[in-house]
Specification:
75 residues; alpha+beta; 4 strands; 32% helix; globular
């Protein structure tokens, strides 16, 4: 999937991935897409909730061999 930004949160545990996500999204322009890679299973709950609470769009997500990947569009 097309994206302009990457955030590697591999090896980090709650709440670090979401804290990093919050900072990264603040640097982005509206409409840009961020790809997040993480290994913490709690991101399956935390990242969709982050998007819902702040009004960003979770464009897609998938899991590949214990890696969680999310594409988030800034609203």
């Amino acid at each position: 999937m097309d994206h302009q930004h990457d955030l590697n949160a591999e090896g980090l545990y709650c709440p670090e991935p979401v804290m990093m996500l919050h900072s990264k999204v603040a640097e982005m322009q509206v409409g840009e897409v961020l790809r997040v890679t993480a290994t913490d299973p709690s991101t399956r709950r935390d990242i969709p909730k982050f998007c819902q609470m702040l009004g960003h769009t979770l464009v897609n997500s998938c899991e590949e061999e214990s890696m969680f990947i999310y594409w988030i569009q800034k609203s």
